[in-house]
Specification:
Keywords: Acyltransferase, Transferase. This is GNAT family N-acetyltransferase. The chain is α+β, with helices and mostly antiparallel strands. Helix content is 31%, strand content 36%. The chain has one domain: Aminopeptidase (3-Layer(aba) Sandwich). It has a seven-stranded mixed β-sheet with strand order 1-2-3-4-5-7-6, sandwiched between helices.
Length: 165
Amino acid sequence: MNITIQQATMADVTGILPITNHAILHTTAIYDYEPRTLQDMQNWFTTKQQNNFPVLVAIINTTVVGYATYGNFNPKEGYKFCVEYSIYVSENYTGKGIGKLLLTQLIQCAKAQGMHTMIGLIDAENKNSIAFCEKLGFTKAGLLKQVGYKFNRWLDVRFMQLTLT
């Protein structure tokens, strides 16, 4: 399996959309309730580009099988060197090392942009994602109890942190 990690283009958004919508509809990885439209995702991508935030895609043959990005952790100026990352892999390709390739490259992008800290917010019940982050050097940085609500239950959020510099 030959996996290519590259900067996304607007054309890749059509491959990113079903991955995002699967996560919305079937997981607690995204705390949205409603699927996004292609226009929503095109606007999201344009905003990422305007803010100089990377959007990386994992490609097998010509198919987008995962993506990763980051954005402002908090809009206040004092947080400008801290980013919050997001990474999603198609349900058909999990457990194949794609997430590690994406996040490793995303960390390099953050370092190149002079970021100091990368934060991940993970559903506290998602032990696999927490362990995944720890393997890449992230540490547990806090737990917020019952701050999310999805699938008719309250969700705790685990903060994961990586100091980049």
